[in-house]
């Protein structure tokens, strides 16, 4: 099986990419020398160290130098180009992959290329890194990874605010129903000097929809709070009475599956119209292995009254 190196200058669907280049012979010789020098190397060891099977490239240059195969591939890939040049090619390749993508595979390819460009942090301009983050955010938007999309947009905006980054952030935030974030991103996007009339219209539409959704959400939350207050009013009154009469509550000293049966669909502690406290009482007779549950015991009565 013939292996090929990755050339960021080569078009994505160029059949020449499948043809081996002469410089690869040196790389194969290095791999062969490593194999001869390490006869005890297992297949797993080989796959972990072989660039063709790697999922991540070490960031430490010394680790790359210790792996001749990886060092050879790095030499073939980067040559004497500057990190800025290489990052630009990753951007261009990513843009090409995203433009030609018809589904997940193409999106994943584009994301990988943008990520490779972002990995070249040193000597890469802030403007280019901003573009790479923004473009990767578009891929995350395609994948419906809305949280990651917003994170990449924020990184892009920190480096250099752009209309695309703000608009992609608004779309992702809207999908997550984070209406405050949508409004914030729209407001900041509209303040950019570079925003066009068409882009302004898009921001204003997103802003209008977000404000409408936020108003509806706040209305629903207010209604739910009102219902909760009505539902909890009797219990809140009980708590107030207990506090006024300095009656502390303690945790239950026992656990029983029967407690759910006793309290289910029954009115618990409450205060009547005359201000008297009523509460349920559970009597347990350990010696007989029996219990009695009295649902409503006024505070004016004694336990003896109930036992009689």
UniProtKB/TrEMBL annotation:
InterPro entries, alphabetically?
TPR-like_helical_dom_sf (IPR011990)
Q: Which UniProt keywords apply?
A: Coiled coil
Recorded hits in PANTHER family, A to Z, give: TETRATRICOPEPTIDE REPEAT PROTEIN 4 (PTHR46035)
Segments carrying the region annotation (Disordered) are: 1-21
Q: Which domain of life is it from?
A: Eukaryota
BP-aspect Gene Ontology terms: protein folding
Q: Does the keyword Plastid apply?
A: no
Provide the protein name.
Answer: Cns1/TTC4 wheel domain-containing protein
A Gene Ontology molecular function term for this protein is: Hsp70 protein binding
Coiled-coil region(s) = 200-232
From the UniProt annotation, give the residues forming the signal peptide.
none
Q: Provide one Gene Ontology cellular component.
A: nucleus
